[in-house]
Amino acid sequence: MAVDAVSIVPDMEYTEPSSNDVRESDGNHLGEKLSKLGLDIAVTADVLGEIADVSTQDREQFSAFVGELNMLQETTKEISINISEATTVATEANEKIHGSRSTVDEAGEEIKRMIDAVKNSEDRMEQLSNAIENVGGIISVINSIAKQTNLLALNATIEAARAGEAGKGFSVVANEVKGLASSTSNATTQIEETLAEIKNGFESLKVTSQETSSTALNVGEKTETFGAILDNVSEAMTTIDRKTGIIDQQMGVVSDACQEFVTISDNVSHNLEDSTEKLNVSAKTMRSVADDTDKMVLRTALNGSNKSERDVINFAVYAQEKVSAIISDGVEKGLVTLDELFERNHDEIPGTNPLQHLAKHSKFIDAHIQPVIEEVVAGDDRIAWCAMIDDTAYITANILAVSKPQGDDPIWNMANCRNHRYFPDRAAKRAGQNKEPLLLQTYRRDMGGGVFVPMKDISAPIVIGGRHWGGFRIGYTP
After folding, report:
1. Segment (H or E) for 454
2. Torsion angle, CA of 374/301/441/390, rounded to 10 degrees?
3. Would the pTM count as exceeding 0.70?
4. How far apart are CA 54 and CA 56, in angstroms?
5. CA distances (Å), 274 to each of 80, 267, 268, 281, in order?
6. Cα gap 294→302, rounded to integer Å
7. Domains of the chain, earliest start first
8. If pLDDT is split at 50, 70 and 90, which confidence band does 23 have?
């Protein structure tokens, strides 16, 4: 491509320097030094800005950490309060357990006395049972005597009958003796029945007493077991009380440490905030110096003091004019409309990472502007890339080398798929919104994956149908 590096820049007078023109040579040398200085300042400004951003993030995270620490301190206080309450409850429970232990011991003694009483009752019932057995034997003797008496009375009656009148008195006596024997026999029978009932009652009472004694023994054993359990629980509650006391002391130490750390953290947070503010001020100052240096470099290039960069700048003017002419011709021929060119609601391309968009004018730009981009980037070895960007920082076209189809690796895509994407960084926004004839920017270009490249960016505004549309950007190394 043949590009007149002199004539295409308006209002610029320039003649080839002679080998003897020392002053102009010194001017070129000064312009190149100024360009290099601007690059160093811009890189430093960007680094300061990144440090300031990181510092801001650190301060925010540290503030969040201090907030969490304050919450931890409050939680520690609540835990300490709960431990104190738990200690109180444990103490009260221990006292109640000791009281219960005394009650259990008293109940155990009562049960032992009851067992002794039951055993004594069993012994007495055994004695009464034996006495009843003895009474039964006596009744048997009386019953035998009654039978014999009844037999004697019967014999006496027979003998009285034989004696006749002389035996009548004896017969009366014999009848009375017989009646007495019968009454005695009936009485002994009733006594035997009563004694049998008493004996059965004593037998049932004896069984019940034995069962009661067995139950009392079991209760006594359970009481002893329960007493042992109470002793274990009491010991455990005492241990808990001791441990909670130790924990309470340790929580006090933790609380004090938290308070001290909060105080230190507040100081560090204030220092971080102050440092971040100073870094931001320094970054803005350095960026402002870099911008001013870029303006000076651009001025030296335009007035002939920096011919090296002037050639690259001329490409931006050339591309601006050619692109504007192509788009205007496309509008006239109906290949693209002004509405399509100024439409800003672009469609997302599904599955892209980073996200890409297709504009209604993308097909026209890719077909007609892409050749201009490739022509410009091939015109100078220092030019790394060229791009069309609108006023929303949407790059609709880029060089083919970084306009590849996306793959599965987002980091690779970041560096190799840089068309049809939004780049809302400072340089992109300024290039898209700039309305001055030329804008020179120096910065570190983010290539993705933590890779940054020092870059100069010269852009010229694109006006379509009398309306500012965006700009044509050229990225180059000085």
Report:
1. strand 451-464
2. -50
3. no
4. 5
5. 36, 10, 10, 11
6. 12
7. 26-305 (1.10.287.950), 306-478 (3.30.450.20)
8. very low
